[in-house]
């Protein structure tokens, strides 16, 4: 009898111990977030997962963003890495689709307008005319596994590199099993899975002229990128000269205050936001990208939407 109760107690104890070990060793998932400094801006990362997954995720995002900075910074001149050639090819498709509104060769324009040195100036008409002869992605050939960039042509990855970095980081996080998260690189972002309140993500779109938001997007599993004339600009005699160029005129593009593009890939959103900013009528371009939509603020401050519609709640 005593023996039986001993075995019973032992059995009960083992059972409890198993349960306890199971619960205490199980990696508990919760939300983690952190901020990193890349691309001259603050990048936010928010993920749902275990502590180990979070540590891995931070590491992956750091590595990916550092690679993006190495390949695509204004000083970069690596024309043979597979990543560089691949992004060039994707950019060239958007160059053709946008009839040259998006153009990686605007580097010389950024240069003569002083956006690279931060010594801003309005160039002489002749200087702009001369610069335009170095603009056009069709001037760049791919030969023997590398890009041939003619002398004087300057590649400028500023309108697509952040989007690329976000997509790469997102893929890396999906690969380590993170199925809810948010990566924001200075306003260009991707969100996936449910947000911490178990709902769609609510993304505030910055007002181009006032502090605060223009409105709120309610989205899931989508990327968002914004191009604005308020991000980098200088003013002379009341005229605002900003960093998004019309490659046809050599002048900062007119007619827009901001363009936000929403869609599945951050790379495409980033490039399309710049292209739509330049184009007078983005209808034809967006028809080629049916999964993408744009929220445009024109130069009078009016809201226009183009392409695919997403849930957007204007605040004013
Ligand atoms: P941000 O860098 O503020 O996120 P964008 O994504 O709109 O802004 O990219 C603007 C940058 O893209 C400019 O600083 C310049 O480097 C580059 N750029 C400017 N005009 C064009 C253009 N027409 N096509 C491609 N890239 C451009
Ligand atoms: Mg862009």
Give a structural overview.
This protein has 316 residues and is an alpha+beta fold. It has one domain (30-314): ApbE-like domains (T-fold). The chain has 8 helices and 15 strands. The protein has helices at residues 2-25, 51-72, 82-97, 107-112, 125-132, 161-175, 266-278, 283-287; strands at residues 30-38, 41-49, 141-143, 146-148, 181-185, 188-192, 201-206, 213-219, 222-228, 233-236, 239-242, 256-263, 293-298, 303-307, 311-314. The strands form 4 sheets. An 8-stranded antiparallel β-sheet has the order 1-2-5-6-9-12-13-14. A 3-stranded antiparallel β-sheet has the order 7-8-15, with no helix packed on it. Strands 3-4 form a two-stranded antiparallel sheet. Strand 7 (201-206) and strand 8 form a beta hairpin. Helix 2 packs antiparallel against helix 6 (161-175) and helix 6 runs antiparallel to helix 7. The longest helix is centred in the N-terminal third of the chain and has 24 residues, at 2-25. The termini are far apart. It binds adenosine-5'-diphosphate and magnesium ion (MG).
